[in-house]
Design a protein that fits this description.
Strand content: under 5%
Helix content: 55-70%
Number of strands: 4
Order of helices and strands: EEEEHHHHHHHHHH
Shape: elongated
Largest sheet: 2 strands, antiparallel
Radius of gyration: 31 Å
Oligomer: single chain
Number of domains: 4
Structural class: mainly alpha
CATH topology of the largest domain: Helicase, Ruva Protein, domain 3
Strand order of the largest sheet: 1-2
Length: 303
């Protein structure tokens, strides 16, 4: 079902080109919902907000942010990594998905056929040769499908075991994207796309060291190379004053993912003497300020 609404021809400038609201796509305009428009043009959306405030377009325009989720990105990066490192395993996984769907569809088709014959059967069902033949064939087919499913489960377990070895790389990689994505809070012009991020990940896979028959070293090389490339590429677009901040954020996130980040130590590093450490008598030394002594006391509290 489609919905239609009439809008006044309100115009705006987009890169020097005169455009109007009619060039946006109308999604929905049901009563009680209000007109919803879709556009890839940021000026169009911005202008829509202005029209909304002026009560020309609607009472309210809601902007939806279709940002990727950490779990979704982690799974995407895992798929990319396994496809590059273990192409046979990834191919098996994709084939398993197809075979599983086909098996389910085949079972559903058999069930529907039996139900149709039962509903249309007249008299004694034992005299219905077509129904009896279908039931016999369905039993044989079901046994074959069950055997196939068991084999698929064994293969799936092996595939999943192989994929699990690469999870740490995808988890860390996914976490780093959100560090970079949040840089826009520091400076609005720091904007990085997911496609750009994935390209760096692919470059890291291609250029990382490949030790023979040593998977753990390969995983460590992948993580190190990706962090290195990501830092270098992002730094190319940062002001000099923000580069140290980026290295600190990446280090914090890496330690957080590895569960090695001490939050109290992090707080001490960031707030520098404002954590409320227990007061201690300060030594009589002119070179030792109250602030420095407070920080030393906090370090002692941390043990």
């Amino acid at each position: 079902m489609s919905y239609r609404a009439e809008f006044p021809r309100l115009e705006f400038e987009d890169e020097g080109v005169r455009k109007s609201l009619q060039e946006c796509s109308l999604i929905d305009d049901r009563p009680g919902v209000g007109p919803a428009v879709e556009s890839r043009s940021e000026p169009a959306i911005a202008q829509a907000e202005i029209w909304s405030r002026d009560q020309i377009l609607a009472d309210q325009v809601t902007l939806l942010n279709f940002m990727v989720t950490p779990d979704g990105l982690q799974d995407q990066m895992l798929g990319i990594l396994v496809a590059k490192e273990e192409p046979d395993v990834e191919k098996k996984r994709q084939n398993l998905i197809i075979e599983s769907a086909q098996s389910k569809a085949q079972l559903k088709e058999i069930e529907d056929k039996i139900l149709e014959l039962l509903s249309n059967s007249k008299g004694n069902i034992l005299d219905d040769e077509e129904l009896i033949t279908t039931l016999a064939n369905s039993k044989v087919t079901s046994v074959r499908i069950e055997e196939r499913v068991k084999e698929q489960e064994k293969t799936q377990a092996l595939v999943q075991e192989t994929r699990q070895t690469y999870v740490p790389v995808s988890v860390r990689g996914s976490a780093m994207f959100f560090v970079v994505a949040d840089l826009c809070k520091v400076e609005p012009m720091y904007q990085y796309s997911l496609e750009w991020f994935v390209e760096i990940f692919l470059l890291a896979i291609k250029t990382a060291e490949k030790p023979e028959r040593n998977l753990q070293r390969r995983l460590m090389a992948l993580q190190s190379q990706f962090i290195k490339l990501l830092y270098e590429k992002v730094c190319d677009s940062l002001f000099a004053k923000d580069k140290l901040m980026l290295s600190l954020l990446l280090a914090f996130k890496a330690m957080e993912v590895d569960h090695t980040l001490d939050q109290e130590e992090k707080a001490l590093l960031l707030v520098c003497g404002a954590t409320g450490a227990k007061a201690r008598p300060r030594p009589k030394a002119e070179w030792l300020s109250d602030v420095s002594w407070g920080r030393i006391s906090e370090l002692e509290d941390l043990g």
